[in-house]
Design goal:
Helix content: 10-25%
Structural class: alpha/beta
Strand content: 15-25%
Shape: flat
Number of helices: 2
Order of helices and strands: HEHEEEE
Number of strands: 5
Largest sheet: 3 strands, parallel
Distance between the termini: 23 Å
Length: about 100
């Protein structure tokens, strides 16, 4: 489901906060913010499929944001090929999950 609702001027992205704090922020390369009011070139130091933390000036803290390019909605109707298993760990401290399919 897509939204065209604009982001309020009072709301800032976490990237804007990090850049204000002196971080070098790169995005490789997904820019789907579910709003048309966020302009990638205005919030990132670099935003492309070549963006990398190695382009950060020496000594500066950095954030590299990277996504798999498959969306969560693209796998909704894949069919019975998907097998998701969640198994409790022996200690009861969390779980282990695995996803297998012919698409993975």
């Amino acid at each position: 489901m897509r939204s065209d609702y604009p982001k309020s001027e009072v709301v800032r992205t976490y990237v804007e906060y990090l850049r204000q704090a002196g971080y070098y922020c790169t995005n490789n390369s997904k820019t789907d913010y579910n709003t048309g009011s966020i302009i990638p070139d205005q919030i990132w130091d670099e935003s492309s499929n070549k963006a990398h933390y190695k382009n950060c000036p020496e000594g500066k803290p950095f954030l590299l944001h990277s996504n798999l390019m498959e969306s969560d909605e693209s796998s909704i109707n894949r069919g019975p090929e998907i097998n998701l298993s969640v198994v409790a760990t022996p200690s009861g401290q969390g779980h282990s999950a695995s996803l297998s399919s012919r698409y993975a």
